[in-house]
Amino acid sequence: MTGRHRSGGHRVAVTGIGVKSPAGNDLEEAYTTVLKAEGTAASLAGWLVEQDHPVHFGCLVPPFDLEAYLTRRETRQIDRTTQLLLCAAADAVADARLPADLPPERVGAQIGTGIGGLPSMEAVTLSHGDRPREMPVHTVPRTMANSPACRLAMRYGYQGACTTYSSACASGTTAVGEAARKIRYGELDVAVAGGVDSAVTTVVVGAFARMRAMSTRNAEPELASRPFDVDRDGFVMGEGAAVLVLERMDSARTRGARVYGEIAGYADTCDASHIVAPREDGETAARCMRQAIADAGLRPADIGHVNAHGTSTLLNDRAEARAVDRCFAGQPPPLTAVKGVTGHLIGGSGALEAALALLCAERGLVPPIANLRASAESDLVDLVVAAPRTVPTAPVLSNSFGFGGQNACLVLVPEG
Amino acid sequence: MPSREDLALLVRTTVSDVLGTDAEDVHERTSLVDDFGIDSLELMEIGARLERALKLRIAVEDLTSARDVGEAIDLLRARTAEPV
């Protein structure tokens, strides 16, 4: 009944989920927020505004009790990125109720981050750039790109493969997909996999704004992230982490774990054309979707809905709509884009959206796209607008596309 | 030259700040290794902060050779008494 994956490898179950995101600090809360389709972006008065910054807003993780997760001593040594990742991971691990006697060498931390420790390097540059002899001793361990993954491994003693994936805005999807492969092909029994970024900072936001990639709708931040809408003017920077516990389906069944669903398909491709702009015809992204669906042993017609990357930039949304059209050959399933609510968590987005997509697929409810009034892409894709769309419980395709031409797609199959 | 009392307060405050605890939790007989499992980076951070506060070069061996906080304070007191 559990059987094997069509590749001959192990099937991969999702048995735990933890979320620290602008839409909420647990999965149910985030799900409820995205179903309401209300933007979470808010003005950052007192900070970006006073700096004469082109962007005055972002999507932040609502405050929560950090001391419930981390000692003050740990908090001192790590940056916000690693803090958010460790908190989401703690929730995911608790949710999975993993057995205490797992061999540590069969468990691995698999984390994606697009920006990594750059925000904390930015901070130390501003605070100590002219006083290098006085820099905090923990500067290197705090800012290393692999800090979140390695701190996670240290915390729980996971001695299996500990890998940090960096594929820009696709990092979280890459991490979950590659972690699933490691389980499928027998390298790990359990992977604590996810993505994180916390880069709502002067320099990082300013740098993205210089490319005109970011919305500057400063007077109406909650309306700024509007994927596939004709009035979009760029993405909104968010922050956050999402972590999924993945394990072999057969062991999950044997131990009676709660199974959210299966990571059934994954693929990644590269446009190899422009360092930040997506390929306009969407062909390499479409191939990525087709490969992920085929990897799951499915046909495009089996996909119940699509969780789009949908950043609210003209170039992404238009190329993605073309790619979806190519993949589904004019018969697209309903499509949503939760960044209208959450903003863009960069490395955190792919993992958060995989978790939300699985829950939406299980419950047969596709969230409407926030702030979407009129679209130039509505002839290519079936955009969900205004109210949640009811769909049959079916596999979901979750897309992530990153600067560098990175494409990563997951196919998740809900239980039931 | 700071009094031993001033020095003790400085050391206990610095240690507790780096370890994320309170100064009351750090006593003369506290062993940073046995009681807190301090790691080498934390020890270096404490050393760096004391160097700044006391305007003094502190050898790593001074920090690692002290068996407890009291002994470290005594060692620092001896160093501050030395002519520069």
3D structure, described in words:
- The complex is a heterodimer of chains A (416) and B (84).
- Chain A folds into 2 domains: 12-254, Thiolase/Chalcone synthase (Peroxisomal Thiolase, Chain A, domain 1, 3-Layer(aba) Sandwich), CATH 3.40.47; 263-414, Thiolase/Chalcone synthase (Peroxisomal Thiolase, Chain A, domain 1).
- In chain A, 32% of the residues lie in helices and 19% in strands.
- Chain A has 13 helices and 15 strands.
- In chain A, helix 7 crosses helix 13.
- Chain A is globular and about 60 Å long.
- Chain B has one domain: Orthogonal Bundle (Non-ribosomal Peptide Synthetase Peptidyl Carrier Protein, Chain A).
- Chain B contains 5 helices and no strands.
- Chain B is globular.
- Chain B starts with a helix and ends with a helix.
- The mean pLDDT of chain B is 90.
- Chain A binds chain B through residues 71-77, 134, 136-138, 141, and chain B through 18-21, 41-42, 44-45, 48, 52.
- Chain B: InterPro entries: ACP-like_sf, PKS_PP-bd, PP-bd_ACP, Ppantetheine_attach_site.
- Chain B: It comes from Streptomyces doudnae.
- Chain B: Keywords: Phosphopantetheine, Phosphoprotein.
- Chain B: This is Acyl carrier protein.
- Chain B: Residues 2-80 form the Carrier domain.
Kindly summarize this structure in a few lines:
Chain A: GO terms for molecular function: acyltransferase activity, transferring groups other than amino-acyl groups. With 416 residues, chain A is an alpha/beta fold.
* Domains of chain B, number: 1
User: Quick one: overall form of chain A?
Assistant: globular
What CATH first level of the largest domain in chain A would be assigned?
A: Alpha Beta
Structural class of chain A: alpha/beta
CATH superfamily of the largest domain in chain A: Thiolase/Chalcone synthase
* Sheet having the most strands of chain B: none
Radius of gyration of chain B: 12 Å
Output the number of helix runs of chain B. Answer: 5
Helix segment count of chain A?
Answer: 13
As a whole number of angstroms, the C-alpha radius of gyration of chain A is: 20 Å
Span between termini of chain A: 13 Å
Termini distance of chain B? 12 Å
Helicity level of chain B, as a percent range?
Answer: 55-70%
Structural domain count of chain A = 2
Could you say what the CATH topology of chain B is called?
A: Non-ribosomal Peptide Synthetase Peptidyl Carrier Protein, Chain A
The strand order across the widest sheet of chain A is 5-4-6-7-1-8-15-14-9-10-12
The CATH superfamily of chain B turns out to be: ACP-like
> How much of the sequence of chain B is in beta strands?
under 5%
CATH architecture tag of the largest domain in chain A: 3-Layer(aba) Sandwich
What would you call the structural class of chain B?
A: mainly alpha
CATH class of chain B: Mainly Alpha
Pfam families (chain A): ketoacyl-synt, Ketoacyl-synt_C
GO biological process, one term (chain A): fatty acid biosynthetic process
GO molecular function (chain A): acyltransferase activity, transferring groups other than amino-acyl groups
Enzyme class (chain A): transferase
